[in-house]
Description:
The structure holds two protein chains of two kinds. By secondary structure, chain A is α/β, with parallel strands linked by helices.
Amino acid sequence: MKKFLAASLALLSSVLFAPGTLAEETVKVGAILAVTGPASFLGSPEARTLEMMVADLNAKGGLNGKKVVLVVKDSGASAEKAVSFAKQLIEEEKVIAIIGPSTSGETMAIKALAEESKTPLISCAAAEVIVNPLARYVFKTPQKDSQAVIRIYQQMKVMGLTKVAIFSSNTGFGKAGKEQLEKLAPEYGIQVVLSEVYDSKATDLTAEVTKLKASNAQAVVNWSIEPAQAIVIKNVRQLGLTMPIFQSHGFGNIGYVKAAGAAAEGVIFPAGRLLIADQLPASNPQKKVLVAYKSEYEGKFKEDVSTFGGHGYDAMLLFAEAYKKGGTDRAKLRDALETLTGVVGTAGIFNMSATDHNGLGLDAFEMLTVKDGRFVPLAR
Amino acid sequence: MTGALAIQYLVAGLTYGTIYAVVGMGFNIIYNTTGIINFAQGEFVMLGGMIAVSLHAILPLPLAIAGAVLATMVVGALIELVFIHWLSRPTVLRMIIVTIGISILIREVALLIWGHNVRVLPYFTGNEISAIDLLGARISPQVLWVVAVCAAMVALTTAFFQWTMLGRQMRACASNQVGAAVCGLPIRRLVTLSFVLSAGMGALAGCVVCPITYTQYGMGTGLAIKGFTVAILGGLGNSLGAVAAGLLLGIIESFTVSQLPTAFKDTVSIAILLGVLLLRPSGLFGARVATRA
């Protein structure tokens, strides 16, 4: 009997107190990330970063005193899943905003959906087309691929290179990069002598690289975010080709340097400053944010920080800043996002406007190279 | 195309081909015993590479590889005992579906254990950029390692299935399970053994190709498709056939790339597979009757 009494008391109290906890106001934000699947190297650090930041935010009392609830959906990099998760988050979960998706293809698949339902979308994917043409409700945190291309071509001009070969992977990222590379080449007096698209799951690319050997290219640009990009680098050097290798900002994962080993030495690529956070001068305005994120992430998850997790960091940061600026419903949040300026993130300093929903300038990129298995700034 | 370039394409084809062949051979053992295709074979390859990379942190390379092969063999045995052994009278279709399920399971477990990053073993000889000059073309020493392992596997499996009692028992088991049982063969144990052996072969393949291809939790599927293609092309159950088919496919792919955009590489190889299956369902080098009741 005593036991029964105790049990019913416990039940009663839980019923009494439950409505109190439910009634506490929360801010619900959704995330669609490729946590598993072929783009898990993007989605996994992004999801970890978001969860870490939300825990930190809530430990400090949340946003405007409201607890932040993060709903992460794992799309496995599938555009179809991204669409159904987006519908679920918008209609059932009624989130105020969606962070992600991780890949450009998925983002493009739900761009119209975000626009129609008037739900702010802060994508973590790179392709230019996400914010150009502009959609009122769609934002993105990584630097634009056109800016990466411009930085590479500027560097080629400095080095006196005019004939290039383009290698790109057969994914959304690779395709978008290839288009920008081919479009912008004439402006910088560069001639594309070979353009090859390879399978992102390739296991060896010696034959493709033999084509490079047969061409008269002076340099190669290799555009991919998948592990196969490291195979290209390795095969180029194995065939005894000594030409400079340029990579996209998708090379910003020290794992690829380890994978390509000795072949990675001297590879040149544009990237955000997160990868060289420790080497930045103290005067750099981003240094504090970068070092704090890097040490917290690496301490917590025991894996190297990557720029991809940084894109998640920036997305959550922009969301939190806009919310604090009065963005307490979907429409207000959108308006607030568009007016954010001087927000110091991992990719650069964001200055949003009604015409720029990325907000990063050319200076967000630093040209890096690989020396002794580490990322270092390229000597000018 | 100059001579040196042609040889370079040939070497590229050899690289692709031996990778396909070394993976493809693993399909043969289970097929030779049970008559089924094990769709988790690619995962054995992945596990071999992954475990070897993990062990290499504390052990020298040869021991790490030996450890990885043994560990994967244990996994192969466990999988057979847990998922397949107790099935009474499993049909071919049912076993295939079970192995597909197992492959998904292994992949997810690998993702939990090793995460999403690519891992890599050091080159057995030299490093990422070393190459041996071959008539003006350059070949990575690791490719020669793959060739050597491939050759050893062909020799050992052929000898095993042709000349040892155990090997013959396993073949008997595949050609007529009831008949083999009537003769007093321990069929269930032979099936377990076939999973152990093919897990070991897959793991060894995974170790030897790892410096070239890298290892990632999801890499098994892609490799298995190509391995499966050459196993079929060569005639299922025929190790030498798998090697010949692997080299043929690799060289065709390589020269396809030399003339067409890379995107057509797989189009050509799948078209060949379909063509062969239409004209010679038993594969290029397979026995005339490969269908099973």
